[in-house]
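Request: Give me one sample?
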Amino acid sequence: MAERAEQQIVKLTSPEVQQDCRIAFSQWGLPDAIQTDRASLFVGADPTPFPTALSLWWLGLGLAHRLIPPHTPKRNGSVEHSHRILDERTLSGPSFNGADHLQRQADADWYELNAECPSRAKGCHGQPPLLAHPQLLLPRRPYPPEWELDLFDWQRVDAYLATQTWIRTVSQVGQVSLGGYRYGLGIAWAGQTVRISFEVQPRQVVFTQVRPETKRGQAPPELSPVRLPAQGLTVHDLTGLLAALAELPVRQLMFPLLMCCPELVSQGV
């Protein structure tokens, strides 16, 4: 919800979130994990949700995706705190003459907070965060965007998907939706419940009929499993890398330190 009448909420798309991540990764390196709420960008609403493209992208880069419980924004306290700081320190001031003006001010504010302002956090001992923790300026896992294809490991994605199963109901025209893609099983499957799994070699999804327990003679006809090529799991689908690198901005609204270094939360930085 917007805090003031002149503000409005803008919902980001997956490519926009990826671009923001690439900007942060380029400066701070790859983190060990990313923690998010349960917005539709990050997790599906189905009881057995298929991983979103963002979640699989992070997984391929070696990042664990941590989801906070529903309706618990305090579990993402550092992010909520950073939003408040940005609003109070930058956005609540005078109006800006375009996006570039806002960008310069946001960059200056975050630099001042990270590099110049004394911190009351326990782990900083009254020093600015970057002075107390200079190692943060040397990423443990460097990420130049041009390295992404080398850093991305498909085996992580395949190994994870191979451990999962998903339950869906086939539509009346014999189709199933999985991960935002439609799979046609045929009209004989209409109305059936199916269990879906993933096979690594070849990369395909397997649809198996879930037969209900009914009285003899009332069960639906038994159908053989259907195997179809997996959709939405190519390099282009998960990274959109060629277009992304062409549009990567030079400047950015810098993330607060704790969003890039969650391990400092326990130290109170």
Q: What stands out?
A: The CA atoms of residues 26 and 147 lie 10 Å apart. The chain has two domains: 14-153+239-267, 155-233. The first strand starts at residue 33 and ends at 36.
